Amino acid sequence: MSIRSQAELKHLRAIGKIVRMALDEMTAAVRPGVTTEELDRIGAAVLAKHGAESAPPKVYGFPGAVCISVNEEAIHGIPGSRVMAAGDLVKLDLTAEKNGFMADAAVTVRVGDVSPEADALVRCAESSFRQGLAAARAGNRVHEVGRCVEREVRRCGFQVMRELCGHGIGRTIHEEPSVPNYYEPRLRARLTEGLVITIEPIVASGSGQGQLQPDKWTVRTADRSLAAHYEHTIVITHGEPILLTAA
Fold first, then answer.
1. pLDDT tens per residue, range 4-13
2. Among 218, 169, 199, CA closest to 64
3. 61: left (phi over 0), alpha (psi -120 to 50) or beta
4. N vs C: which end of the chain shows fewer Cβ within 10 Å?
5. CATH of 6-243 given 3.40.50.720, 3.90.230.10, 3.30.420.40, 3.30.750.24
6. Which pTM value belongs to this model?
């Protein structure tokens, strides 16, 4: 969506803040021995406390409040009985809705001490997001965001999972435009003032190829390498974007 009024921006800021609070509470609860189902309940409780709802169950029928993916699982992991162990990487990806407006964010959380490779992968997801954010200015082409993300990921020695992209958001989860994490010259559309999008690098320590699992939701790396995910919902301006889901 493109914001047309201060009232719309206020609603988006409100749901962005709730998403951030839910992710922060879940992050604080991550430790060895906790299950993904327990983390999901924490996220759902924060949403309910603030009058918000998880969007994926409403829009797509997803069987959980939060997409929780572990290690080689990149996105859309279904919460359940899986128990966290030291060394795991846990991706918490939450899209929520309140008053008809949606925001989406994700973070990769280290469970205790992780390997140097896992730590570098998490840092790469975050630094590549920042590089993409620097290109997210009104007047720039969409493909400049992806170019900056991919350049940083390659500098770090990892690979973008090319089939997984950022997107427009606001009134529903996935809106135009698609925001790839790589340079796609055919995407010549320009970012415009007030446009609401997500930037979300999803990176892998291996080939970057993804594979849909039998549950029809979870996407993991085909070679079972580690994956990391970092995401914010932003509003495009002529200067610094507005980060709706930041602390």
1. 999 999 999 9
2. 218
3. left
4. C
5. 3.90.230.10
6. 0.97
